[in-house]
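PT: before anyone asks, these are the final sequences, not the draft ones from last week. 227 residues across everything. Please model them as a single complex and drop the result in this thread when it's through.
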Amino acid sequence: GAGVSQSPRYKVAKRGQDVALRCDPISGHVSLFWYQQALGQGPEFLTYFQNEAQLDKSGLPSDRFFAERPEGSVSTLKIQRTQQEDSAVYLCASSLAAGGSYGYTFGSGTRLTVV
Amino acid sequence: QKEVEQNSGPLSVPEGAIASLNCTYSDRVSQSFFWYRQYSGKSPELIMSIYSNGDKEDGRFTAQLNKASQYVSLLIRDSQPSDSATYLCAVIDTGGGNKLTFGTGTQLKVEL
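LR: through. Structure below.
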């Protein structure tokens, strides 16, 4: 596609519910990143994929967070047993090159609200 | 300690003026620096990248890098109301592989 596509655009979850957020990167982009952005803050790194390999998951805040990219294209970020502190915008970004040394393109994000 | 520091603002400038946005970073071996613009409710958009000391100009935007002072700035000439947004400074985290570390952003308001 022309850009990074994320769905859903908005998600309201009841506390304790599991959610799955989808990212469809730019076709052919090797690198894929997930970030979490709280209100009034800069994006915070969650995890990085190079093709299907998850090379860095150091930013995942707890074992309730899980990400996958099984075929090296579409990625899913799953949050189990959501908590109120999980409310944020979840941003996906992709880059043609391995790694993000030249910057990357963000999707529109998924705004998650946990009630 | 936050690795990338920015003044949260808001920074208010009149239309047509030069807006100066500043950023400091703590990792001395950082090599790649970026400025992203984020409109309210939208995702960050890459506007400038800089990798070596000095100035880099692109249209009305100039990025300045001083690695000795661990300082990077963004100048916006002839500011327009459409430049009103939050500007995020980001640095490649050399200790963490490929991820970008962002500052909290500076809110810029260009007033008529």
